[in-house]
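Two quick folds needed for the group meeting slides. Do the first one here.
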Amino acid sequence: MFRSIWLYLLLIVCSPALASPNHVFFLSEVAPPYYWIDENGKAQGVNVDLAKALKPLLPFSSSLEHMPWARAVQETLDNPDLVLLSLLRTPNREDKFEWISPVNHMQASLVRLKQEKAALVNSLDDAKRFRVGSIRGYGSASFLQQEGFEENKNLALVAEPALLWKLLYMGRIDFALANFETGKYEISDAGFDPNDATSEYVIEELGADLFIATGLKTEEDKVKSLKNALSILKANGEYARILKKWGLEPIESAQ
């Protein structure tokens, strides 16, 4: 099912003759509490609710799809009318996207299993003595590489959160770099007990906001319509209700 959806979306975005000028694709990755498929095959999460709430407020049609995040980010850079619903805003991305609206604040930390002894990690240099995992395409992964972590040495990169937590719980890595509050959803979804994990070291440099964002090729009128729709959701309280429903704190002051 996932493969068929991905191939369909790839065909749409790569074929101008098939793309509709009056449509946008909202993109998410499979990452609770933002997006996941429940036991009944139904999509759930923050991004699902946001996409539904935005739909009637837009002067064009819209739909929500999911794909691996590194692919989603690249497709959004290369093609118009693709909107990422939860993109980490980082300095190296600042000039590459139109930042439509903040969603919530993220704080990343190195997460380990409680059964393991405290590693006494007080800095990134300390962490380089261990195996750290992250998601390929994430801003946090790029940050680790810029700080001198090397793939296949002390850095393991995977395609999705479920694989990251599997590596940690199977003892293949010492730490997973993640937001532990949302990571608890991911851990449970991957079939593990989040009570068996703990945050060891908070990386202050990675504290940042998640944004709804689109690429620079999306028409200005569509960007304005998206910003206006988000402002309406924030003004009428629906935005805050959606975030709080899934245990997240909204950024109330930003429009």
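Then this one, please, same format:
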Amino acid sequence: MDAVTDGRRARGDASRRAVLAQAVDLASVEGLAHLSIARIAEAAGMGKSSVATLFGNKERLQLATVHTAQDRFIATVVEPARVHPRGVRRLVALLDRVVAYSQDRVFPGGCFFSAAAADFHAGPEGEVRDAIAAQLDDWLGYLAATARFAAERGELPGLDPAGDGPEQLAFELQGTFEFMNLMAVIRDDELHYARARRAYHARMLALGVPPSIADPVLEAGAALRVPATE
């Protein structure tokens, strides 16, 4: 591959990243279903033919947008919680980060995936809908796996790691998040973030988590602090 081809590819990759950074923000506000070659070209100040060259068609653009949103979610929620080894401290850190993810408007319209799921939940099956569902499944699965590992280590005395207990817990935790995100965005206030933190805190205490480990979820960022003994 010659230098000219390398340079052209690098410019194309940079353009694609720049367009997708705008696409995820736009879709979180206007809806992924409404994201099109024409709409993102307008928002990015590019010609439709240039955007079409990068993505091919509307569905390819939407799929790339979902994957970009997933990368941003992982970088914002999952990776910071990995300051802790697997176990209950990481679970608490994940709960802290997922509240902050909505509150800090990592996507301007709140949670990208909540909005995208609402757009596509009753629509026809297809790759975009499957990609949204897969990301939600991955997140719930990660929460459940983290909870199961903590329970197996005796860090969640009230949770039986056998059977469906961790999956049920993940479902309940995500249900709190969904209503928090919906109400906080539609009301544009902070109250529901505090309510979600209190709900997570109460759930952890009810499962036998010591206050010293559960309490940090009440304060944004506190769960990321690594104790000197860890």
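Slide caption for protein two: The mean pLDDT is 92.
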